[in-house]
Design a protein that fits this description.
about 240 residues, alpha+beta, about 15% strand, protein homodimerization activity, chaperone, cytoplasm
Length: about 240
């Protein structure tokens, strides 16, 4: 009986060990299955993440390329704008200079035409003045004729004044070659040398411009001028 009891106990121990080993094997199998499933899940997720990251990187590169292209286009447009602005400024300056030059040329041409037209009338005025100085009417009919052409002369003088014509009246002034034309040099002691002593043909201004030079007689040193004290040579006795 004792031996049977021992055999029974041994049998139970063996069965317990077998059961424990079976349980351990089952647990190990479950752990291995869980690990394998985890690896499978991990291996399935990683390529998607890598694909997403690659797509985002490619998108960023594309955006950076577009931004760089836009910046390059903006810089090009800025350069073109600066060039066009510079061209516009040059054209505007050239046009302004052209306008001023054209205006000046027009004014000079108008002035020249005016000078030529008025200058052609001056000999007529000269003839009226010579007639006034030389003709002395004696009879009443002669006086009437004289008055009639003198009235015409006055009208012409008034018209010339309204156009800006004025006489020079150089007598007594110092000779100026820009205004006067010396026809005669006359020795005299009454005027300093180089002084205009008479006007042979009247000179005129048109505004500030010389319309006609005055033909004048200019004073030269007199033949018997007494030298001044400063110009007299010192006496040997002194």
């Amino acid at each position: 009986m004792i031996e049977e009891s021992k055999q029974t106990e041994q049998t139970e121990n063996i069965n317990a060990n077998v059961t424990e080993e079976s349980n351990n094997s089952a647990e190990m199998s479950a752990d291995m299955e869980t690990q394998l499933n985890s690896e499978v899940v991990t291996s399935d997720t990683t390529p998607e993440q890598e694909t997403s990251s690659a797509a985002e990187a490619a998108e960023w590169e594309e955006m950076e390329a577009e931004i760089a292209a836009l910046e390059q286009q903006v810089n090009l447009l800025k350069t073109q704008l600066e060039e066009r602005t510079s061209q516009y400024m040059r054209i505007a300056a050239d046009f302004d200079n052209f306008r001023k030059r054209s205006q000046k040329e027009k004014e000079e041409l108008d002035q020249q035409v005016k000078c030529n037209t008025i200058g052609s009338l001056l000999p007529v005025v000269d003839n009226f003045e010579r007639a006034q100085a030389q003709i002395k009417p004696q009879t009443e009919p002669e006086k009437n004729i004289h008055k009639s052409y003198q009235s015409i002369y006055k009208q012409m003088v008034t018209a010339l004044k309204s156009l800006g014509v004025s006489p020079m009246r150089p007598k007594g002034q110092e000779f100026n070659p820009t205004l006067h034309e010396a026809a005669i040099q006359e020795p005299t002691n009454e005027y300093p040398e180089g002084t205009v002593i008479d006007e042979l043909i009247p000179g005129y201004f048109l505004g500030e411009k010389v319309l006609r030079h005055a033909v004048v007689k200019v004073a030269a040193p007199g033949e018997h001028m007494v030298p001044s004290e400063e110009s007299q040579p010192e006496s040997p006795e002194s």
